[in-house]
Amino acid sequence: MRLIDTEGSEPELVHETNTTRVWVMDSIAFASRTHAGDVIVTGSHGGTSAGEYAADFGVSVVVCNDAGIGKNRAGLAGLEAVAAQGIVGIAVSHHSARIGDGSDTWSSGAISYVNAAGEQAGVRTGRPVRDEILALVDRRGS
Fold first, then answer.
1. Which residues does 83 contact at the CB level (< 8 Å), separation at least 6?
2. Percent of the chain's residues with pLDDT above 90
């Protein structure tokens, strides 16, 4: 059994404007309702449970790992579902960032998937997630 180091697993505020905060965390489970309206960048997969957390917490943008996408697009299912609630769902490629590592997602993640709400907001695949998140925050009127 491998012990997991939880030091530094608390959400880290990486960007803040008058209207938007961007948080990085290893797991979406570290988010809470205090993050309502915020952008959260996680190392979690983008499956159904991740979408449920994002909707429950009322975030405006959620970034996850595509986790290889998987059978029936399971690694993206939660991100696809939250588009109906106007939540921007973004996945980074599992080839670009380690699953479960929010910092690596933020610093190295390349976008492999954007839900319909994200497409409407102008988020593009193939781009560094950090660049696209900062541009999105700027477009929204930081």
1. 89, 115, 116, 117, 118
2. 89
